[in-house]
Amino acid sequence: MKLSKIASKVRPSQTLSISVRANIKKAQGFDVINFSAGEPDFDTPYNVKEAAIEAINENFTKYTPYEGLLELREAVADTLERRGLTYSPEQIVVSNGSKHALKNAFSAIIDPGDEVIVPAPYWNSYIDIVNMVYGVPVVVETKKENVFKITVEELEEAYTDKTKALIINSPNNPTGVMYTKDELEKIAEFAVEKDIYVISDEVYSCLVYSKKMPHVSIASLGKEIYDRTIVVTGLSKKYSMTGWRVGFSASNAEVAKAIGNIQSNSTSNVNSIAQAAAIEALDNADDVAEEMLKEFQHRRDYIAQRVSDIPLISCMIPKGAFYLFVDVSKLLGREIDGKILETSRDVADVLMDKYNVAVVPSDAFGYSDYIRISFATSMRDIVEGSRRIEKFVKDNF
Ligand code: GLU
């Protein structure tokens, strides 16, 4: 019996698989430093956990509206309003994490064969999600000299009469790069002129390190672009709630209704307990989130400096998110233990196998010659992991 074409095409999430590999090695007794998945190491805030316990004790355990509790969607609307985005609760759907919100969003707008422009480096799951809804990802490799940001000229070149949407992810995973208001205005103009949707993945909008460069949502740049943008974000990164699986989309009412219908026939509502916890997070955990952000900034400054001091490899200081995108091109073509390092995946393999450091090679993100280091991990791991990466370079090159 044959699998479906889609099932044979979809790959396991690379970020998650490398993290699983690291955890298996850890369980075997190796002291592995896991710089792979972008998962904050902090505990979920205490009051959020208490809200969930209370929800259980109060038997808040039945179906909720499939699009999410009204109180939660109101809390989401308030949060978005503080970022300059006005949505009514009817325009918001709560899903099982932002990954699920993305899948729902694409399901709502893509017909088989429709093209979606995906600037690379991209977060790995975009490609598989677009494939899963029978869309065609059109990858545009951004240039290092453009700080990995897509330009309107590149968009024009990628555009065809089948283009239905484009993805903007700012701050970006894996580079930490952020688009300015001016840049977004140009992209918005392009999207409006071509009459296409924009999927704006804003899950890292809570992790921005400079007050001088606040996050701008493309949806905030006028009525026409607002109408054609689907904003997707979630609670995982901001409140350290990865396992709770709460994300959401905000869009025009027609798209939101379609997303709700799709969800009503697939997963129904997000776990009721997680929704109760999410309300508490949005209403009463921003002070804890602020503390986590400060700690991420401290870690970012430390690891960016350490990596910059290592010969042959280099990185930019990320403006947002919690990843360092490290150029390892100067290590390629060299030999370790009789094996030539051909790609950054070979570099990542040596780091994992010989130095017990898990990183994600950039081919996972549709780009060559880089590795991604997540600094959403403890300072102890960051210090030790940087030491091992330095040793790897000094030992071998
Ligand atoms: N988004 C995070 C990452 O890129 C978490 C893992 C995943 O879902 O891909 O590492």
Architecture overview:
This protein is α/β, with parallel strands linked by helices. It contains 14 helices and 15 strands. The chain has helices at residues 5-9, 14-27, 46-57, 70-82, 97-109, 125-132, 152-158, 181-194, 223-228, 253-264, 272-284, 286-309, 344-355, 379-396, and strands at residues 33-34, 92-95, 115-120, 136-141, 163-169, 197-201, 229-234, 247-250, 314-315, 323-327, 335-336, 339-340, 357-358, 360-361, 370-374. The chain has a 7-stranded mixed beta sheet, with helices on both faces. It has a 4-stranded antiparallel beta sheet with strand order 9-10-15-14. Strand 6 (197-201), helix 9 (223-228) and strand 7 form a beta-alpha-beta unit. The longest helix has 24 residues, at 286-309. The chain starts with a helix and ends with a helix. The model has no long low-confidence stretch (mean pLDDT 97). Glutamic acid (GLU) binds at residues 13, 15-16, 37-39, 99, 123, 125, 173.
